[in-house]
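Catalogue entry: protein
Contents: sequence, fold tokens
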Amino acid sequence: MELTDLRREIDRVDSEILRLFAERMALCEQVAAYKSAHGLPILDEAREEEKLARAAASVPADLSGDARALYALLLSLSRRRQAALRKREVD
């Protein structure tokens, strides 16, 4: 496979990642509304640790640290989005 072909495949995968990211963040908005309505905190440390461990275990061992780091960033972005939405509710 040529470099341009490989890059085209990476672009295809990146597009799918971004589509899924947008879908995930939309779901986080619903989670934020639920947590707000039920007086639940944004951070659920036990659930996040479980998700990080699952992410690390779902890839080859040489990628587990990177998968965990990537998922930690995703969870951080989700918490930040939920916090921003809650702040808007109060304002």
The longest helix spans residues 3-37. The CA atoms of residues 55 and 68 lie 6 Å apart. The mean pLDDT is 95. The two ends are 54 Å apart (CA to CA).
